[in-house]
Here is the input.
Amino acid sequence: MESNGVTGRRLLLAVGLWLPILALALGATLGGLRLGARQWANGHPADLGAILLCEAYLALLGALAIAFGGPQGIRDRLGFRFTSLTDLALAWSAWIAALVAGLLATLALSPLLGQPRSNAVDVLRLSFDPLFVALVVPTVCLLAPAAEELLFRGALFGWLRRRIPLAWAVLVSAAIFAGLHLLPPLLPFLFAFGVAAALIYQRTGSTLNSFVMHASQNTVAVAAAYVALTHGQAA
Here is the structure.
């Protein structure tokens, strides 16, 4: 499978660029609102948070694009390309398997890690304002999965698998992916998903396939959170 150009230097460059790009974007947004729409910003904290979250992931995508050579680098170095419908079906199958295994492991370990709770519920509970929903739903369901798959599978796993045995590259990348989400009760599920996504990328050579897994998972989580909130099932 392709891994040309996935170097530690490019990975560090992407992470290093993300922070200043994010700082500039957030600074421009907050500064502009402070000067021209302070009253709106003060009265719509959830909408402001949705804008900043969207900018954070856009900044990450921009940093990855710069570090890995633009759209062509995203395709060729990080593998974001269509391969086949068979690979997509394999990706969905792997997602379902990871979903089942991850949920079982999460429930089994909940006495140690705490009661599992979807962060999608906490996000959607902030507001049902049209602007908030219009920003948060595409960010969580599409933008975040794209950025995270390019980072964790395309860049991180793509670098690790060239330096350590494949099994360790899968496990280490999955552990980092799970840990950086900062959701201890969901660590088993996130780890299981990270393993499955890395294996799909290794098998198919495409982060588009692992993105489909990730986008499917986040979309289901958002839909379930919406149903729980609108039917009074979320504590």
Notes: The chain has a mean pLDDT of 94.
